[in-house]
Structures are given as C-alpha cells and as structure tokens.
Amino acid sequence: MRTYTILGIKFFGGTAREAVDEISRSGGLLVAPAAPSLINLCRDAEYRHAILESDLAIADSGFMVLLWKFLPAKPFRAFPGLST
To answer: Domain residues of the chain, as ranges?
Structure first.
C-alpha cells in the first residue's frame, strides 16, 4: 500500500477504488481530514490521536494536495478534491 506522510499522518496514495478495496478488505477506521481540521492537530490531542491512529487516511483537501505538488515529493490523490 502506497502512503505519503504529511504532518505525521500516513495518507493513502492510491485511487478511490483502491481505497475502498483496502478498507473493505482490512476493515478499520477510515478518516478524511480536511485542511481546516488539520490546523487543530497541534491544539486538540484527542483529534490528533484519532487521526494518527486511524487505519486509512485519505486526502480531502484539494488545496493541500496542490501545495504538496510543489514540494519535492511524489503527488498523491485527493478524495473527492483535485485528482492528480
């Protein structure tokens, strides 16, 4: 499973279909933290713990994905935001 770590969160790096297949096969907690919520990671310990301990995280922020494209890293997909 391809993942990309941003702010300590391991985001899923595949397609929407692959994300559905992965969580259907393995089960667990799927999260889709949006940019406004990510701001609270440093202030809200319970939220941070829930996000960091999730089984599968998918990007819900098209803006975050767009910024990530400008960093020296491989691009990944946002669901349902911008496709890469």
So the answer is: 3-69
